[in-house]
């Protein structure tokens, strides 16, 4: 096959065999028509072939870029949405939910219960709650199922699976050089 001159369009043979035009020395309007026909044939062939991902192959243009209508990952994002994606990507949902139990205790259980109790420790799904008196500890034990349901609706399921409710911590009289063995105080100061 003879080589093509440097400026000749593909598909147009200027060597004289006349594959496209059929005549030697095609010039003027015939040459323009041959160039247009060759470009259209190349375009039809490219449209029928499966497209490759990337920059579009031979043409040097992108097939499907970020320009145009619709959402784009480069668009400005809401801070909360970006933070939620980061929390999911790093696996921080459970620590966040556990922190919400302590940080938003009043919102989680309600203002009345929050006034008389406080969360102390969350370990392995067991939340330890300290009530301000033994009477409130008894009330909270009776409301344990409702509290677990409220906590689950606020922070998610399986964050808190069990409640350990106790009354106020009584002071210890076991310190000091002199002490008497015995049962100790009988009241919880509540």
Automatic annotation (TrEMBL):
Q: Which Pfam families does the entry link to? A: DciA (PF05258)
Query: Gly residues composition bias: which ranges?
Result: 13-25
Q: Where is this region: Disordered?
A: 1-30, 42-78, 167-190
Q: Which domain of life is it from?
A: Bacteria
List where Basic residues composition bias occurs: 42-54
The molecule here is called UPF0232 protein
Look up and give the organism this protein is from.
Answer: Paractinoplanes rishiriensis
């Amino acid at each position: 096959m003879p080589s093509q001159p440097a400026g000749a369009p593909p598909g147009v043979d200027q060597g004289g065999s006349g594959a496209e035009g059929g005549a030697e020395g095609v010039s003027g309007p015939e040459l323009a028509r041959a160039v247009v026909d060759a470009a259209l044939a190349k375009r039809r062939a490219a449209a029928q072939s499966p497209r490759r991902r990337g920059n579009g192959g031979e043409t040097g243009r992108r097939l499907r870029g970020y320009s145009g209508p619709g959402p784009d990952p480069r668009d400005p994002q809401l801070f909360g949405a970006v933070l939620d994606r980061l929390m999911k990507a790093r696996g921080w949902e459970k620590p966040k939910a556990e922190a919400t139990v302590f940080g938003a205790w009043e919102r989680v259980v309600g203002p009345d219960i929050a006034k008389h109790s406080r969360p102390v420790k969350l370990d392995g799904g067991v939340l330890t709650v300290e009530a301000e008196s033994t009477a409130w500890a008894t009330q909270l034990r009776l409301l344990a199922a409702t509290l677990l349901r409220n906590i689950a609706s606020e922070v998610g399921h399986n964050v808190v699976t069990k409640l350990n409710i106790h009354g106020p911590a009584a002071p210890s009289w076991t310190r000091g050089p002199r002490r008497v063995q015995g049962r100790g105080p009988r009241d919880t100061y509540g």
